[in-house]
Design a protein that fits this description.
Layout: H1 5-8, H2 13-34, H3 40-55, H4 63-109, H5 114-128, H6 133-178, H7 197-209, E1 214-221, H8 224-231, H9 233-249, E2 256-259, E3 264-270, H10 275-286, E4 290-296, E5 299-305, E6 307-313, H11 318-332
Antiparallel strand pairs: 1-3, 1-6, 2-3, 4-5
Helix pairs in contact: 2-3, 2-4, 3-4, 4-5, 5-6, 8-9
């Protein structure tokens, strides 16, 4: 420990001037030693400048020059502190911009849930008010927890996406087997992943010619055109896909399900039962009210899903059966539907 007592007390008057010089020199050394480090080059220059001022304090230095050196040291310290404050402020701004970019990126890629995005936005706002080191450490902890949630959500979506892909691959393979064309490629509908209308017509023609008891179920999803108009075709396709998946999952593995056109889904069924019993079977799940959560911009919407449906007995001629289907579809859908 450095003690100033020997320099302030017990010295003769002729040594007082030397003691003051010694005290000033020690203070300058302390300023250089304990200055807060900002940018390293600036910090090194500041310490060199203070050291140079300290070297000017000698037993022979006139008092006027001593005062000039002290004043210059104070100005150097003031300038250095101002520059260091700017560095700290810039670092804080850089941190805020980093979190802002992170938030926008997470929102744009859609790899996180609404909760994670909201937490990131809160952290971004908190940085604007952050001044203390303890606050930065707390925000670092919160940011780490939030990013961990984002990673878990991304992993969950990746797992679900792979599961959906595997399911679609299985459906494609089953469709090929049912139409008796393993080697031929099946034309799939992009929105639902179901075989297209072209494939449906082949299945209907085969059903009409079959001696087995066949039925045709048709379901027309309600308000798809309104969803398209308000939220875009991508959201409308999600609504169709959700209902198509529900419709298919509630039928047997031997039943053939197709995307007809517009918001219509059809299924070719083979049953030994009467029409009324088949209608009861379909009613059990076709009239269930479904819901679909979709992301639109920065908000989450909940869309109700329902459908109108009917059952037809498959009998020749094919043209007459198709007329009945088209008449039912037209009665459920406005003419301006695209």
């Amino acid at each position: 420990m450095i003690s100033l007592k020997p320099y302030l007390f017990g010295q003769k008057d002729k040594d007082a001037d030397s003691a003051y010089r010694r005290i000033i020199s020690l203070f300058l050394q302390g300023i250089a030693l304990h200055a807060v480090e900002g940018e390293k080059n600036d910090y090194d220059r500041f310490r060199v400048d203070i050291d140079e001022f300290g070297k000017q304090i000698t037993p022979d230095t006139p008092m006027s020059e001593l005062l000039v050196a002290v004043g210059a040291s104070l100005r150097a310290m003031e300038d250095y502190n101002r520059r260091t404050s700017k560095v700290i402020h810039r670092q804080n701004s850089d941190l805020q911009n980093m979190v802002s970019m992170l938030t926008r990126t997470v929102i744009s890629i859609g790899a996180s849930g609404e909760s994670s995005v909201h937490k990131l936005q809160e952290i971004e706002k908190s940085i604007e008010r952050t001044r203390m080191l303890e606050d930065i450490q707390l925000l670092k902890l919160r940011l780490g927890e939030c990013l961990e949630a984002v990673r878990e959500e991304a992993l969950r979506q990746k797992t679900e996406g792979q599961s959906t892909l595997d399911s679609l691959k299985k459906e494609v393979e089953n469709s090929r087997e049912r139409v008796g064309s393993v080697t031929a490629a099946v034309e799939l509908d992009a929105a639902t992943g179901l075989p297209s209308k072209k494939e449906a017509l082949k299945a209907i023609q085969a059903a009409v010619q079959s001696p087995s008891n066949k039925f045709l179920a048709i379901a027309v999803v309600s308000r798809v055109q309104a969803v398209n108009a308000r939220f875009g075709y991508a959201i409308g396709d999600q609504v169709l896909s959700t209902f198509a998946k529900h419709f298919k999952e509630n039928l047997g593995a031997q039943d053939q399900v197709f995307r007809w056109h517009g918001p219509a889904i059809i299924a070719v069924l083979e049953r030994d039962d009467r029409l009324e019993k088949v209608r009861t079977e379909i009613r059990r799940f076709a009239e269930v009210k479904l819901e679909k959560t979709a992301e639109v911009g920065n908000r989450t919407i909940l869309l109700p899903i329902s459908a109108s449906w009917s059952i037809f007995t498959v009998t020749p001629p094919v043209e007459e059966l198709l007329k009945k289907m088209e008449a039912f579809t037209a009665a459920q859908v406005p003419r301006d539907y695209v």
